[in-house]
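Input record (one chain):
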Amino acid sequence: MQTEIKKVQLVEVGPRDGLQNDPTILDPDARIEFITRLVDAGIRRIEAVSFVNDKRVPAMAGAEAVMAGVPRGRGVSYIGLALNPRGFERAVLAGVDEVNYVVCASDTFNQRNQGAPRADTLASMHDIARRARDAKLPCSLSIATAFGCPFEGEVDVAIIRDIARQANDAGIMELGLADTIGVASPFDVKLRVAAAREAAPGVTIRCHFHNTRNTGIANAYAAIEAGVAVLDASTAGIGGCPFAPKATGNIGSEDLLYMLHRMGIETGVDLPKLITVAKWLEGTLGHATSAQVSRAGLFPVAA
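The corresponding structure, as predicted from the sequence alone:
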């Protein structure tokens, strides 16, 4: 079936969501090099840093140093994750181009991930959105565990609808549906995209998939069929969540791009260059990674 989507924006989340749970902790200089290589490969939207407590997520320490060293003036938008007003203040001072805020659909997961009930975090979203407007900074919202929770199980789609409605009311510019633990199916994707779009008709929908149960690429395809044109992925398929037991990596950026390019969908990314970045990253981390295209290579092979 021919999709109507002709262009997809890749949001590269490797430097933040990818590295946050990796056993190898990279210092700010190595993370700057990673980001620079991504920019050289043509990626223009990067989740670069997280403004969280260094003791809770040691891999994200030095966010300000990373932002001070990333390449500028090349049309790249750098996203910083902020989970509270203090994180937002740090993000603004560090010079991010966008702020991403997170609310977990599961109350239990929200308590473990952010130390507060979902209702409190959702209420704070309105304050963060207002601060972002005052700072003239685009603000997006990610709904974590939008497809399922490791502690509560199934997540009612009505919760997604309610969060999306509030995001729309708050003036959030983009809403991310995140399969934090990799439990979604293509049917789930279409159902939740439709629910979010109905509740937040003026907000761009973005999707974020993990490949824990090997459905990540199928879910990305389902999102495209549902009209989603912004997808998260992580180079080499690295990633996971420190607060989600057994959650493995994101879908690999090179795997997603291979599918998109074979479908005739434009991304603006140089896939051979990104494969080189994936191989560099695997060597830098010192362990095998999960994405497949960087191993199998492209098809057809150039003569």
